[in-house]
Amino acid sequence: MKKVLMILTGGTIGSINDNGIIYTEKTGACLAAELYSQKYGDLEFTVKQPLNILSENLKTRHWETLVNFILEQDMSGFDGVIITHGSDTLSYSSSMIAMCTCHLNIPIIITAANYVPSDERSNACDNLRCAAVIINTVKRGVFTVYKNDGDDFCTVYMPTRLKEADRFFGRFSSVDGRPLGTVKNDRLTFDPYSPAICEIEKEKQPVLKNRLLLNKNVMLLRPYPSMDYQSISIPENTKAVLHITYHSSTASAEEENSALTFLRKCRQKNVDFYLASFGKDSSAVYESGNILLKNGAVPLYDISDESAYSKLLLAYNILCDDLTAFINRNIYFEYI
Question: What are 202-223's pLDDT values in tens digits?
Answer without folding.
Answer: 999 999 999 999 999 999 999 9
